[in-house]
């Protein structure tokens, strides 16, 4: 039977999407401008991946603890805490560029990364509010809100660029000082999300007329006992989802660093770099709803594995083709592949656990994704400096190939 989305769920998801549009601009800055900020502060291209690595370290450190907080206290508590940390991080990053301090930059990026990854509990909230048959498209609706951040990012740069020249302030630092306004707006929007998504998730039948909870399938949360990351990892379906998410995230981290450095090397402006990352991010977020519907209709693996393969093709285009058109197409495909893998993998992990465990389970998934980002960041700069673009391309392609190879030599795909 086809279920109609309740008004309260539509409202809460729309509010989360609006909040994400306000806060997402900073995420684009961290990937788009972060490598340039590092090079400006250190003078070394070999350290270009430091900013992305710091975001990965932040995700690795806070994803699981933040999930534990929201499993016990509700999703909004973790979102508020995350946005507060992100606000402090944006101010610190702006001051770091004014003071020309790499150590202040490191502290600010860690703060900002922890905050934005804490705010990713919005994804957990979206997963809570939908039944399994519609969960992936629910995640897709939320991710679509990030498109607003794509629009706001170039606008902030366009506003701050002439102002930075007139004030004599570093052009890479001033956009960060505008971000607290957007984050505060996002916090205000989250305040109107009622009831807490965890409350809805614990009793879906009370909010979804006609819904009957399915019988629990074998998975990380199906047996008795306290949830643990190892229990999730031992579940074959969850394990392949985590590997697919790692592949898409690590692959994308390498490509996003390369894009900024290549465009800057060819003399393009910060506004042009922001616009280029916007096109990449369109691939990340513009198609999340149809991808989610496909994952709900045909199964998570049927979207997840093709997504990883598409990101592999995109990385190869960025690294091994000389034309601007093909490089831009490659960045778009990397974003699109990541979107498919991320939406389907997150839904699959959410399916395997109970509502009371979901924050920690998705936190485990995000922590592994953070680890893959750290790896990508540490290898990208040195590979560029020592061996050139082709070596980074090989690494990005190899990362994407891991879950495909594991799947090829494993049993039937998990549902």
How would the blueprint of this fold be written?
Blueprint: H1 7-32, H2 34-42, H3 50-73, H4 75-99, H5 102-119, H6 121-128, H7 135-144, H8 146-167, H9 174-190, H10 197-201, H11 204-207, H12 229-234, H13 236-265, H14 270-285, H15 288-298, H16 301-320, H17 324-351, H18 355-387, H19 389-408
Give a written overview of the molecule.
- This protein is mainly alpha-helical and 415 residues long.
- It has a single domain, classed as Up-down Bundle (Growth Hormone, Chain: A).
- It is globular and about 60 Å long.
- Helices cover 80% and strands 0% of the residues.
- Helix 8 packs antiparallel against helix 9 and helix 16 runs antiparallel to helix 17.
- The model has no long low-confidence stretch (mean pLDDT 86).
- The two termini are 20 Å apart.
In brief:
The protein has helices at residues 7-32, 34-42, 50-73, 75-99, 102-119, 121-128, 135-144, 146-167, 174-190, 197-201, 204-207, 229-234, 236-265, 270-285, 288-298, 301-320, 324-351, 355-387, 389-408.
């Amino acid at each position: 039977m086809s279920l109609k989305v309740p008004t309260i769920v539509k409202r809460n998801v729309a509010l989360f999407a609006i909040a994400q549009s306000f806060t997402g601009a900073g995420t684009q800055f961290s990937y788009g401008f972060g490598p340039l900020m590092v090079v400006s502060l250190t003078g070394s291209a070999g350290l270009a991946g430091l900013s992305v690595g710091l975001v990965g370290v932040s995700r690795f450190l806070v994803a699981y603890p933040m999930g534990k907080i929201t499993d016990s206290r509700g999703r909004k508590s973790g979102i508020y805490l995350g946005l507060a940390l992100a606000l402090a991080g944006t101010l610190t990053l702006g001051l770091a560029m004014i003071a020309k301090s790499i150590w202040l930059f490191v502290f600010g990026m860690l703060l900002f990364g922890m905050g934005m990854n804490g705010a990713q509990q919005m994804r957990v909230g979206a997963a809570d509010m939908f039944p399994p048959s519609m969960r992936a498209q629910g995640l897709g609706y939320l991710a679509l809100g990030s498109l607003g951040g794509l629009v706001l990012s170039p606008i902030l740069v366009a506003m701050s660029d002439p102002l930075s020249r007139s004030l004599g302030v570093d052009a890479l630092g001033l956009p960060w000082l505008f971000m607290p306004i957007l984050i505060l707006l996002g916090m205000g929007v989250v305040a109107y999300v009622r009831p807490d998504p965890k409350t809805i998730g614990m009793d879906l039948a009370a909010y979804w007329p006609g819904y009957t909870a399915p019988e629990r399938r074998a998975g990380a949360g199906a047996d008795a006992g306290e949830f643990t990351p190892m229990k999730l990892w031992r579940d074959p379906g969850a394990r392949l989802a985590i590997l697919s998410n790692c592949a898409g995230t690590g692959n994308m981290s390498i490509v996003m660093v390369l894009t900024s450095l290549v465009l800057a090397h060819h003399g393009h402006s910060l506004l042009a770099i922001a616009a280029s990352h916007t096109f990449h991010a369109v691939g990340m977020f513009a198609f999340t709803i149809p991808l989610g519907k496909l994952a709900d209709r045909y199964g998570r693996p049927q979207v997840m594995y093709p997504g990883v393969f598409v990101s592999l093709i995109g990385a190869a285009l960025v690294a091994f083709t000389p034309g601007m058109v093909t490089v831009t197409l490659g960045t778009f495909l990397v974003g699109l592949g990541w979107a498919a893998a991320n939406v389907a993998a997150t839904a699959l992990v959410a399916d395997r656990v109970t509502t009371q465990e979901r924050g920690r389970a998705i936190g485990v998934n995000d922590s592994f994704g953070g680890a893959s980002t750290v790896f990508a960041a540490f290898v990208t700069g040195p590979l560029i400096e020592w061996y050139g673009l082709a070596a980074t391309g090989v690494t990005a392609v190899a990362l994407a190939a891991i879950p495909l190879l594991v799947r090829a030599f494993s049993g039937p795909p998990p549902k």
